[in-house]
Amino acid sequence: MPAAKSGDGVNILIIAGEASGDLHASALMRAIKDCFQAVGRAEKLDFWGIGGPMMRKEGLRAIFYAESLSVVGLIEVIFAIPSIIKAFSLIARHISKKRPSLVILIDFPDFNMLLMRLIKGLFNIPVLYFITPQVWAWRKRRAGALRKYADACAVILPFEEGFLRGMGLNAEFVGNPLVDIVSPSVDAQAFLKEMGMNQREPVIGLLPGSRRQEIKRHCPILLRAVLLLKERKRRFQYIMPLTSRDLIGEDLKGQLQKEGVRIVYGRTYDAMNASSLLVTASGTVTLEATILNIPHIVIYVLNPLTYLIGRLIVKTPYISLTNLVAEKEVVKELIQDEANPENIVRHIERLIDNEDERVRIINELRQAKKLLGSTNAAQRAADIAIGLIAH
């Protein structure tokens, strides 16, 4: 892998792990570069650290590729210990040579929380944490570590600022980066025409999740819901956007397609925007649906033991980010045993047949979107970063 080179300008160590972190970090890098460009100092700026292809495209000098450092969950951290040790060693070696002006950590908490302790323990360098761990939901003790080791936290959910400030952290809500990102490439009618779908019949978007295990758990339930709707003579169309072809097995894909579910790849926002409503797994996609103002039903099914443990440690009234942002139930959540075909069908029909209910939810989604802030979240995070460098 390419090594970071030292220089006499301002250099920033930046760390992101997963694809979403790579995306948001690249936008932040671009915003910081724009600020330096505006004062004629762009040539003095050097980013180095750990990241993915989008960060490298923005000029990151990678000492370790994020694709080689997948750390998600406690068990995965244990299995990834050799990679973690190697990455930590490389970072420590380069910090001692380069003495960065600032360290920026993006999401990726199982790795970055450990790294933050190392950096502050060995070096007196300011740290900005952008997209902090969800301490409001679980592992609340992490807030103490953030208070001790992070000089500033740029948060992306509106309630996080008050929560973290109440625990003594220097936290600022910068807006949600998804507001800048979520946008269909074509309008709904053009997309349906392109897909050869009827532009007058309701379209039900099915989003089973972004991980193979989520798709494996949720697709059979969604398939049975489709079959039940067909038994009830409902004239609906179904579309399932997936980010990659290797997420779903051929057998399952064949069963879905046999029942008329159109599977599309790489057109998630277009498919969501063309849908009358969505049935979606819990996750970031619920905020994306909110930004697109599409009514949705949230489902999630876990291994029974994992669900039991989760109920004991997760302390939130909702699991949907839409409802958490709104601080009330805007969209229906069907979790574990409640996520069954009969319930899903009942709520689909409620949203399709009851226009008053549909309008109410759409209006509440608009209000929730406003709470996510305006555009340019990366620029506001960049302003914080530059403030720490200047300080």
Folded structure, characterized:
- This protein has 391 residues and is α/β, with parallel strands linked by helices.
- The chain has two domains: 10-175 and 374-390, Glycogen Phosphorylase B (Rossmann fold); 188-371, Rossmann fold (3-Layer(aba) Sandwich), CATH 3.40.50.2000.
- The protein has 18 helices and 13 strands.
- The protein has helices at 19-38, 53-57, 74-79, 81-98, 109-122, 142-149, 158-166, 178-181, 188-195, 212-231, 250-258, 268-273, 284-292, 304-313, 321-326, 341-353, 355-371, 377-390, and strands spanning 10-16, 45-51, 61-65, 102-106, 127-130, 152-155, 171-173, 203-207, 237-242, 261-265, 277-281, 296-300, 333-335.
- The strands form two sheets. A seven-stranded parallel beta sheet has the order 3-2-1-4-5-6-7, with helices on both faces.
- β9, α11 and β10 (261-265) form a beta-alpha-beta unit.
- α1 (19-38) packs across α18 (377-390).
- The longest helix is centred in the N-terminal third of the chain and has 20 residues, at 19-38.
Write the layout of secondary structure elements.
Elements: E1 10-16, H1 19-38, E2 45-51, H2 53-57, E3 61-65, H3 74-79, H4 81-98, E4 102-106, H5 109-122, E5 127-130, H6 142-149, E6 152-155, H7 158-166, E7 171-173, H8 178-181, H9 188-195, E8 203-207, H10 212-231, E9 237-242, H11 250-258, E10 261-265, H12 268-273, E11 277-281, H13 284-292, E12 296-300, H14 304-313, H15 321-326, E13 333-335, H16 341-353, H17 355-371, H18 377-390
Parallel strand pairs: 1-2, 1-4, 2-3, 4-5, 5-6, 6-7, 8-9, 8-11, 9-10, 11-12, 12-13
Helix pairs in contact: 1-18, 5-6, 10-16
